[in-house]
């Protein structure tokens, strides 16, 4: 199809599919194209990539400027990418109606969600969808625990999937089909990306955020020294990272291409939970002058360094988000662009991080930046369990007990984590005996023989977990 | 480092999720109420200049913490150096009232306060604007609890309608200031002792 602007859809596809090209670089487009035109053209290419099931291209598009452009394309793209990321099969038998132990907390947090949505019908519709999505997930995985902030993350998915593309508004009635797609995406996203946060202890997310000071040190050793970031846990980042920034930025319901949606695009298309950590480090670096200024001004106003750094970083960051001035929006766009062009983790830094990140963490398995699920790389789950336990026992021995009253109960957590992982793999593997879903068949990278050979591995692993529990 | 803050009163708000900690903080600091407050993750803080008994001016630093139990281990990082701890329950939620004692105990275990028996706590029963039919914690039960916790002050508040919020925070500021001064005096005593020892040594060395 030739566009009226003189560049055909397939020409664009060829340009964007060029793997040597910086994915954030749309400079091959004639310079007189404004942002709006670029987005329109990009939409056509995204639609084509979806139609042709060109997943590599789709990911390249999602992590370039403007992400997936609008929520109509976004819901289709997220659905495609997530379903290729982790293969899960659901059957009606899995429906569990036993309430999860965290449902009261879920109710409480859902009740105070979407307060910014003025239309009461729309607000209630979103709340209902949010609650159902969260409750359905936790009833299916009762060993996982809900955390405050999980509802913020799922709110973003709910807004994206509840959009009625024809009216460009929130649907007042979500079809059963749409709801199913939403639940599946929530499930895959939670298992592949948020698993560490859904554990019984905060040790796992704290390990994850501990990568941030390393990233800052790498880029700006002076700032790192000044704030003495090696002397404290980076608790200032916990709300942003646990919620992938959705606690601080509300998902827009007007159909606008807000920053928060583009952040999620980037996380999904990089297949990496390192991405929010890199983004966080980059925003701190972009705000370093303001942080330095506030730090100096407040040095005598706080009881200790933990309070001071937490307060200063949080205050400056929140100002940059809440400030409606165009410069603030521009700042976030610049930082997002910077992250898009370099989200990779330096191998030396990754090596350092691997010293304290649990082997079973999404950062080292399902959301490590590698596009395919571990089931495809033949990684031995059994080996993973044994190694994980040994590693954590060593860590437990090294760490002085009860530093801050924290319970280093890794053993149980590893088992829970692996049980969930193994169960999801087993579900997928067992389904080999039945029919495969059409979209699974379509994934070009899927190696059916390897999946079949993993059946015995997974069942052995499950036995191992059950016996050692 | 706890000696470096001058005229800064650190106040920490604890209590179960949804009892109104964030609302109370915003009502006091900004005199605003909104139904839109989101769940607190980790810890947030606000500051307000306070004038105590028309005599002393100080800056109150109010630290709002997450109520969900699983965040408790993270919240303790901010207990250090607190001058007053505010314990909040919801008058329409029995469980939140029953948990008050464990919030206090948890605070004392982790805050490392110099004199736990005299450390100031203030108890707030929030949401008194609710219908009487919904109230499940009696004022008498609250007063008995406050007495059992060492005769700590108790206030019945509504962040929504601003009832008693200012009065409660006046008391919080007063208690925090008192605690802050006690700590400063103790620090000064220690400091003077150290100097005295040094002087004594010097005297001894001269006589040698």
Structure overview:
The complex is a heterodimer of chains A (469) and B (208). Chain A is mainly α and 469 residues long. Chain A has 22 helices and two strands. Chain A has helices spanning 9-17, 35-51, 55-62, 71-85, 103-111, 120-140, 150-161, 176-192, 203-209, 211-219, 221-226, 238-242, 259-270, 274-286, 288-298, 305-322, 326-341, 347-354, 381-398, 410-430, 438-441, 448-468, and strands spanning 163-164, 169-170. A two-stranded antiparallel sheet of chain A has the order 1-2. In chain A, a hairpin with a 4-residue loop joins strand 1 (163-164) and strand 2. Residues 1-8, 19-23, 374-382 and 401-469 of chain A have low confidence and may be disordered. Chain B has helices at 21-30, 72-75, 94-98, 100-111, 139-148, 165-207; strands at 8-15, 43-52, 56-65, 84-90, 121-126, 154-156. Chain B is built from six helices and six strands; from the N terminus they run βαββαβααβαβα. In chain B, strands 2-3-1-4-5-6 form a six-stranded mixed β-sheet, with helices on both faces. Chain B is an alpha/beta fold. At the A-B interface, helix 5, helix 12 and helix 16 of A face strand 2, strand 3 and helix 4 of B. Chain A: Pfam families: RabGAP-TBC (PF00566). Chain A: Keywords: GTPase activation. Chain A: One of its GO terms (molecular function) is GTPase activator activity. Chain A: It comes from Maudiozyma humilis (Sour dough yeast).
Backbone shape of chain A: globular
- The backbone outline of chain B, from C-alpha atoms, is globular
C-alpha end-to-end distance of chain A: 59 Å
In which range does the helix fraction of chain A lie? 55-70%
Count of distinct strands of chain B: 6
**In what range is the share of β-strand residues of chain B?**
15-25%
Q: How many β-strand stretches of chain A?
A: 2
- Just give the CATH class of chain B: Alpha Beta
Q: Keywords for this structure?
A:
heterodimer, A: 469 residues, mainly alpha, Helicase, Ruva Protein, domain 3, 22 helices, 2 strands, B: 208 residues, Rossmann fold, six-stranded mixed β-sheet, 6 helices, 6 strands, 40% helix, disordered C terminus, Small_GTPase (chain B), Rab family GTPase (chain B), prenylation (chain B), GTPase activity (chain B)
């Amino acid at each position: 199809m030739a566009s009226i602007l003189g560049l055909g859809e397939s020409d664009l596809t060829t340009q964007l599919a060029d793997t040597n090209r910086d994915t954030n670089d749309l400079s091959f487009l004639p310079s007189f194209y404004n942002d709006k035109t670029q987005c329109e053209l990009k939409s056509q290419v995204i639609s084509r990539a979806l139609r042709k099931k060109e997943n590599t291209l789709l990911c390249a598009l999602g992590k370039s400027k403007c992400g997936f452009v609008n929520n109509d394309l976004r819901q289709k793209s997220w659905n495609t990418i997530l379903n290729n990321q982790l293969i899960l099969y659901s059957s009606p038998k899995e429906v569990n109606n036993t309430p999860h132990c965290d449902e009261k907390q879920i109710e409480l947090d859902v009740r105070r969600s979407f307060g910014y949505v003025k239309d009461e019908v729309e607000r209630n519709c979103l709340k209902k969808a949010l609650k159902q999505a969260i409750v359905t997930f936790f009833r299916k995985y009762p060993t996982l625990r809900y955390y405050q902030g999980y509802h913020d993350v799922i709110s973003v998915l709910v807004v994206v999937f509840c959009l009625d593309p024809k009216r460009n508004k929130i649907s007042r009635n979500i079809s059963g089909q749409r709801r199913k797609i939403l639940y599946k995406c929530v499930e895959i996203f939670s298992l592949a990306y948020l698993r560490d946060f859904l554990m019984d202890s905060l040790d796992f997310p704290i390990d994850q955020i501990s990568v941030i000071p390393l990233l800052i040190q790498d880029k700006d050793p002076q700032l790192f020294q000044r704030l003495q970031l090696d002397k404290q846990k980076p608790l200032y980042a916990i709300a942003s990272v646990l919620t992938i920034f959705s606690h601080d930025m509300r998902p827009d319901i007007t159909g606008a291409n807000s920053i928060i949606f583009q952040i999620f695009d980037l996380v999904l298309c990089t297949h990496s939970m390192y991405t929010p950590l890199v983004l966080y480090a980059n925003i701190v670096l972009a705000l370093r002058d303001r942080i330095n200024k506030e730090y100096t001004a407040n040095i005598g106003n706080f009881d200790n360094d933990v309070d001071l750094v937490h307060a200063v970083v949080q205050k400056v960051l929140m100002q940059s988000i809440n400030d409606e001035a165009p410069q603030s929006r521009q700042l976030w766009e610049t930082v997002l662009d910077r992250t898009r062009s370099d989200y990779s983790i330096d191998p030396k830094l990754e090596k350092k991080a691997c010293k304290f990140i649990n082997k079973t963490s999404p950062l080292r398995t399902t959301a490590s930046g590698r596009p395919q699920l571990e089931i495809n790389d033949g990684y031995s789950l059994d080996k993973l369990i044994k190694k994980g336990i040994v590693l954590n026992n060593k860590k437990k021995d090294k760490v002085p007990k009860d530093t801050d009253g924290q319970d280093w109960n890794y053993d149980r957590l590893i088992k829970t984590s692996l049980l969930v992982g193994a169960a999801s793999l087993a579900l997928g593997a067992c389904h080999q005996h039945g029919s495969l879903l059409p979209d699974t068949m379509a994934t070009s990278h899927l190696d059916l023989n390897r999946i079949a050979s993993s059946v015995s591995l997974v069942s052995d692993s499950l036995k191992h977990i059950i016996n050692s529990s | 480092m706890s000696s470096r803050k001058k005229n800064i009163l650190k106040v920490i708000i604890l209590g179960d999720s949804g009892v109104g900690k964030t609302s109370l903080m915003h009502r006091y600091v900004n005199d605003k109420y909104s139904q839109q407050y989101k769940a607190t993750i980790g810890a947030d803080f606000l500051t307000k200049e306070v004038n105590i008994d028309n005599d002393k001016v100080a800056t109150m630093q109010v630290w709002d913490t997450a109520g969900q139990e699983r965040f408790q281990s993270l919240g303790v990082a901010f207990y250090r150096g607190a001058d007053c701890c505010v314990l909040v329950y919801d008058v329409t939620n029995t469980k939140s009232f029953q948990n008050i004692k464990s919030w206090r105990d948890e605070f004392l275990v982790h805050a490392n306060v110099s004199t736990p028996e005299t450390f100031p706590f203030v108890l707030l029963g929030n949401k008194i604007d609710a219908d009487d039919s919904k109230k499940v914690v009696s004022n008498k039960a609250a007063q008995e609890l406050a007495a059992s916790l060492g005769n700590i002050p108790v206030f019945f508040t509504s962040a929504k309608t601003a009832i008693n919020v200012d009065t409660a925070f006046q008391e919080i500021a007063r208690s925090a200031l008192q605690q802050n001064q006690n700590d400063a005096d103790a620090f000064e005593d220690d400091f003077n002792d150290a100097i005295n020892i040094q002087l004594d040594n010097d005297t001894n060395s001269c006589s040698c």
